[in-house]
Amino acid sequence: MSPLLIVVGGLPATGKTTIAAELARRTGFSFLRIDTIEQAVVRSTPLAQPLGPVGYVVAREVAADLLRTGVSVIAECVNPLAVTRDAWRDTGLGHGARVLEAEIVCSDPAEHRRRAETRDTGIPGHVLPTWAAIVGREYEPWTRDRLVVDTARLPVDEAVAVIEAAARPRR
What we know:
Layout: E1 4-9, H1 16-27, E2 30-33, H2 34-44, H3 54-68, E3 73-76, H4 82-94, E4 98-105, H5 109-118, H6 131-136, E5 147-150, H7 156-167
Parallel strand pairs: 1-3, 1-4, 2-3, 4-5
Helix pairs in contact: 1-7, 2-3, 3-4
């Protein structure tokens, strides 16, 4: 069976990392988190945030290596632009993988803001965006089908189950 690339995207503080990490625990898939990669780059080079495409490029190259060897991958990132979405899709398809794009949203603005203002990423030195930065950031509308998971309506276990169900090969 071909490997699977699951790209978990969405605005900061919607629950992407929590869902992607639990999905990785349940499936055993490799887990690539852009924030972790970017913070490692900042800690080990003279570069500073914003890094631009660096974290995404590194993650896609690592994902390509894993997919080439038949290992399924979960990539967690904001994935805000059509160009980043296309690049992930091309990476998966170009390496023989099935691709599932999941957009994590939080339809309750008060809950989304609460999460943004109270969360801890668990990444030493990582500076979180403010609520104003989250709602003001560039985030292009999707132009193709994707799985939308609303964390204001689904607890983590159910959100993960929805993605797992969508990831099952169709006969």
